[in-house]
């Protein structure tokens, strides 16, 4: 799965800089059709009865018992779907084998439905249902093989999990899709919902005649009768429940084929009819084919699941999800204007990420959710490797550094940091671990291993692992063991340092020269000073040594690989070198470590950054400056002055994207600091003026022009700039080469509403009439929520905390993320007590998905000592309320403390 990206405009996010048929059956299989599961780890049977706790989550201890209790599972599922009902009907025939000596009741996970009938082996038995799971007393079931038959109904979901129902408000068409990770498959059908009880699936679906129905296999038959079609799907390979897919609706479909000497894979792409005109097929099918070519060779194992479908769906909670052979993608990957290269590269990365999961996650699956990090980290690493080696986006590792790795560093510096490998006691805890460590840090440390083990040894270890455990479940030692065996190296120490110890270290150089000659280099490693994380690690890095002359390109005089460890490492110099002007201690980004430049290198950076022609190095040098703001080495004012003087001379769009994003965050810092006794309108004006002037300096229609324009739209304030916006939206003004597409028009409308500028209400009504799509309706909600005024905020606050269900999660999320834009910090402060006091009721009434979005968007971080104290009190009061809320409260307090410290530098 790929997580949802965060917005940059909403104030509470400002501290977190940024991480898509034909009837008639046919089945294409790979050259190997053996789906026999790898030998399972057989758990010792439980001799004592284990009683399941009564709540909505699954606990690891109970899941481990159930994995020893239940085996050889086969589901025969049937669904009746229609266009009008808020509920769907289903039946589940569950074949399973019960272990000898069982003393525990059997539970079947099923959340929020109605059980209409239940029988075991054709006989009525005793059972109970608490709306979370069905319980069958142990005395009712003997050891051996059984068939459990359950008839049920359930409401469709409207929060993006389970079987989600979406109705387009303009056309009335209904679309369905499933989304299950980590523990939501039980919101669609009764079963044993845990990754280590793999099962085979048979599926029959009754649906309206005009609908497509998509699952893990291509349909074997479709028959029609009296206005409906009955779709039958052949038996799947053994798979985990969270990746079983069911998507249905009048989706538009495009077809293509991946072909090589070894395999032919039919490809399909689906999207809502309402969005189909905006789908650029080459952006989807080309990276899909490139990824198949790369992974089939790299893994030495042809794609094992026959066909490959990708479905672009609305209201999606994440970026994408690796459902088996039927991957779902958010509609945010479809733009209503021409995409810039960075957007195309991002989509290609996500396509590769989800495809990597077909082998690593779907074919071979973690035993329990503590293995989530390896699942996601490996897919993240492999996606970037594929892009760098097999696509047009060969700068993927630079983007990995500026997006994924920075996300990892930020998460690892938070008070909520945790080891990569850690216990996950319940499925609720699993949800909280979808973070920068799970994705970014894990991928970063995996990126080290090819340097340490050798690229071919690493690749061979991965291939051996996948072959040995196909269709099975694994634990960490299985993966590490395969790598260790392939390379002939013991990874015990590496595993302990990197996977079981939290935190990120910092690396700096100390060097001495005699005259013009370099005499010595010492690497100094430190651990975080304000956190109890003393571990000093060992890893390979590469030192880049440079000299700079005025008006000339910087010269790299050496690249020195080093294995460093402990507090201090003396670097061996094997040749005479000139005294460098700059040493970068992580050249090519081998190591997972924060870089602190020495004083000489820092001064060289400030004077000569544009003379370094290596884009990847330059992006790291720019990042060092922004890190200096957070570490209080340079002030926000200094960073703005430096960026405004240098950025328009920068020739890398990727670097421009990064620095412009930092300018947006700087602008938001100035807004939140405005009420601390000083005013920072002048600093904000410098940013806004710079971005506006930079638009005209770029080539018309270029990606960099769009980058500056989108940033300006995010930060524009003051009468002059708001007038520019109004004139653009009304057609009185235009910018040469810039297409003001519908999505950009809405960005302007939302900003005009946030300032209640001019005739913003009239402009909004006209835009709603112009764009009657559901995406337009979401943006209209954002614009409404962004309007200032207590009465407006009170209205939306009541809707957010209410339980009337008027708004879907996707809609209320749009409201929450726009309720207090950066210029409305005073309003946020007025609501701070209400926002925190609502937490207990929300924890009781809402699920983790809602709580995560509420807490990220609306916890009051207002950059004052008072708000820090308020958050500290909330942490103490609500420490046991919910793991999602507890985590975000602690992060918010830390962010507020950082903001106060940044303000003191001004």
From TrEMBL:
Alphabetical GO biological process terms: peptide catabolic process; proteolysis
UniProt KW rRNA processing keyword: no
GN (gene name): pepN
Organism: Saccharophagus degradans
NCBIfam families: pepN_strep_liv
Catalytic activity: Release of an N-terminal amino acid, Xaa-|-Yaa- from a peptide, amide or arylamide. Xaa is preferably Ala, but may be most amino acids including Pro (slow action). When a terminal hydrophobic residue is followed by a prolyl residue, the two may be released as an intact Xaa-Pro dipeptide
Keywords, alphabetical: Aminopeptidase, Hydrolase, Metal-binding, Metalloprotease, Protease, Signal, Zinc
Domain called Aminopeptidase N-like N-terminal: residue spans: 73-243
Record-given protein name: Aminopeptidase N
Database matches in Pfam families: ERAP1_C, Peptidase_M1, Peptidase_M1_N
């Amino acid at each position: 799965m790929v997580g949802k990206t965060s917005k940059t405009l909403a104030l509470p996010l400002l501290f977190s800089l940024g991480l898509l048929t034909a009837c008639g059956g046919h089945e294409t299989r790979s050259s190997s059709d053996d789906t026999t599961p790898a030998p399972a780890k057989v758990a010792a049977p439980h001799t004592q009865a284990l009683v399941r706790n009564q709540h909505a989550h699954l606990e690891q201890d109970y899941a481990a018992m159930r994995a020893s209790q239940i085996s050889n599972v086969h589901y025969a599922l049937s669904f009746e779907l229609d266009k009008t009902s808020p509920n769907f009907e289903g039946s589940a025939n569950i074949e399973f084998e019960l272990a000898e000596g069982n003393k525990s009741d059997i539970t079947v996970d099923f959340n929020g439905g109605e059980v209409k009938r239940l029988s075991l082996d054709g006989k009525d038995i005793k059972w109970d249902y608490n709306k979370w799971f069905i319980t069958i007393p142990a005395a009712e079931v003997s050891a051996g093989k059984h068939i459990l038959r359950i008839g049920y109904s359930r409401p469709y979901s409207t929060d993006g999990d389970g079987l989600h129902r979406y109705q387009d408000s303009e056309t009335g068409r209904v679309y369905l899709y499933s989304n299950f990770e980590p523990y939501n498959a039980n919101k669609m059908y009764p079963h044993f919902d845990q990754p280590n009880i793999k099962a085979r699936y048979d599926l029959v679906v009754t649906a309206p005649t005009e609908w497509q129905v998509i699952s893990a296999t291509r349909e074997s038959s479709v028959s029609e009768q009296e206005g409906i079609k009955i779709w039958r799907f052949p038996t799947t390979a053994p798979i985990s429940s969270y990746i079983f897919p069911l998507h249905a609706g009048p989706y538009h479909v495009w077809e293509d084929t991946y072909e090589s000497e070894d395999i032919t894979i039919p490809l399909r792409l689906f999207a809502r009819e309402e969005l189909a005109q905006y789908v650029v097929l080459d952006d989807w099918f080309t990276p899909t084919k490139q990824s198949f070519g790369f992974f089939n060779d790299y893994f030495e194992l042809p794609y094992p699941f026959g066909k490959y479908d990708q479905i672009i769906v609305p209201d999606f909670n994440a970026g994408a999800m690796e459902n088996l052979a039927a991957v779902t993608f958010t509609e945010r990957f479809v733009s209503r204007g021409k995409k810039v290269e960075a957007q195309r590269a991002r989509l290609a990365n996500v396509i590769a990420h989800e495809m990597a999961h077909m082998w690593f996650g779907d074919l071979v699956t973690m035993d329990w959710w503590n293995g989530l990090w390896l699942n996601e980290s490996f897919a993240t690493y492999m996606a970037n490797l594929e892009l760098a080696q097999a696509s047009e986006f060969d700068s993927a590792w630079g983007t990995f550094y500026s997006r994924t790795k920075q996300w990892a560093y930020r998460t690892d510096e938070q008070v909520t940091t945790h080891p990569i490998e850690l216990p996950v006691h319940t499925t609720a805890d699993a949800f909280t671990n979808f973070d920068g460590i799970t994705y970014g840090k894990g991928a970063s440390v995996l990126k080290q291993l090819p340097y340490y083990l050798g690229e071919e040894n690493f690749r061979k270890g991965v291939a051996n692992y996948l072959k040995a455990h196909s269709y099975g479940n694994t634990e960490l030692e299985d993966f590490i063991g395969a790598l260790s065996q392939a390379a002939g190296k013991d990874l015990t120490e590496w595993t302990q340092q990197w996977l079981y110890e939290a935190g990120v270290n910092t690396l700096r150089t100390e060097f001495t020269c005699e005259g013009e000659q370099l005499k010595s280099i010492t690497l100094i490693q430190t651990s975080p000073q304000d956190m109890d994380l003393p571990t000093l690690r060992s890893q390979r890095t590469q030192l880049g040594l440079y000299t700079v002359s005025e008006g000339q390109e910087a010269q790299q005089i050496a690249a020195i690989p080093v294995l460093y460890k402990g507090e201090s490492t003396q670097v061996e110099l094997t040749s005479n070198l000139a005294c460098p002007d700059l040493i970068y201690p992580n050249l090519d980004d081998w190591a997972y470590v924060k870089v602190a430049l020495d004083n000489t290198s820092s001064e060289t950076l400030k004077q000569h950054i544009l003379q370094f022609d290596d884009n990847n190095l330059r992006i790291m040098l720019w990042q060092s400056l922004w890190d200096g703001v957070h570490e209080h080495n340079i002030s926000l004012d200094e960073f703005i002055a430096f960026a405004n003087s240098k950025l328009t001379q920068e020739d890398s769009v990727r670097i421009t994207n990064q620095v412009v994003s930092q300018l947006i965050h700087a602008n938001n810092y100035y807004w939140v600091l405005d009420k601390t006794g000083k005013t920072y309108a002048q600093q904000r004006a410098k940013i806004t003026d710079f971005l506006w002037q930079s638009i005209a300096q770029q080539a018309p229609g270029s990606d960099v022009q769009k980058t500056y324009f989108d940033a300006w739209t995010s930060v524009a304030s003051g009468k002059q700039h708001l007038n520019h916006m109004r004139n653009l939206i009304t057609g009185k003004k235009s910018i040469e080469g810039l297409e003001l597409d519908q999505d950009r028009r809405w960005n302007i409308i939302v900003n005009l509403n946030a300032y209640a500028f001019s005739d913003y209400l009239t402009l909004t009504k006209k835009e709603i009439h112009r764009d009657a799509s559901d995406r337009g309706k979401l943006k209209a909600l954002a614009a409404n929520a962004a309007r200032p005024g207590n009465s407006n905020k009170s209205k939306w606050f009541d809707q957010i905390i209410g339980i009337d269900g008027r708004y879907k999660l996707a809609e209320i999320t749009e409201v929450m993320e726009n309720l207090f834009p950066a210029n409305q910090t005073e309003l946020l402060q007025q609501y701070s007590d209400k926002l925190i006091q609502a937490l207990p009721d929300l924890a009781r009434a809402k699920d983790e998905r809602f709580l995560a979005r509420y807490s990220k968007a609306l916890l009051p971080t207002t950059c004052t000592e008072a708000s820090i104290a308020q958050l500290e009190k909330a942490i103490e009061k609500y420490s046991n309320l919910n793991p999602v809320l507890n985590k975000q409260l602690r992060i918010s307090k830390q962010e507020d403390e950082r903001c106060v410290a940044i303000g003191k530098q001004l």
